[in-house]
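During the reporting period, our protein records have gained a structure token line. One record among many is quoted in full directly below:
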Amino acid sequence: MPRETNPKIISNGRRYMGNMAVAGVLYSAAVFGGAFAIRNEALPQWAAILAALAPLLPALLMLRAYAIFLNGIDEFQRRIQTDAMLIAAGVVGFGSFAYGFLEEWAGFPHLPLIWVFPALIGIWGLAACVLRLRYK
């Protein structure tokens, strides 16, 4: 049976999209709600810490959704995903390592660490697309 019409794969993809959609809505609510509360309310330090860390819970739900998805795909697709992750880790790891030296020793502007994880995810997705095209 071709992969595109395999009900198990379609079901796995739909479950992944549903789980990610729910986690994405919760993440957006936590980011915007936390930012609003921190900027517009006189929160005590403990509440500001909780608001700042609140987006991590839905992000963990996203990670869980991806782990479930990864366990439901075939070995070839899993290989593409792990290769893409390795490429992303190398690019972001060595890129941030190099930029750290440029910040410290060459006076480059400081980049907040909050951008490391989105860069990792973005490069991972890009690498997965390139790897899929390579195997077509």
